[in-house]
Amino acid sequence: xxxxxxxxxxxxxxxxxxxxxxxxxxxxxxxxxxxxxxxxxxxxxxxxxxxxxxxxxxxxxxxxxxxxxxxxxx
Length: 74
Fold this sequence. Notes:
The protein is mainly β.
C-alpha cells in the first residue's frame, strides 16, 4: 500500500515496483483489509509508471503483485 498522509498531493516512490500493479476500484468495490478476501467487487489494475504513485492529499493506493496474488482482482 502506498500512502500520502500530507496535506498536499505527492509522488510516492515504491521500492521494488517491478511487477506491482495499482488497483483501481469501480463504484461497487470494497476493501476490507481484515477479511480473508480483502478486495471484493470488480477491480482493474495499471502498471506503476517509473516506480512512483502520485496521490492526492490524505489518500492511499492499493498495490498488488499479480504473480503472488493471482485471484486478487476477482
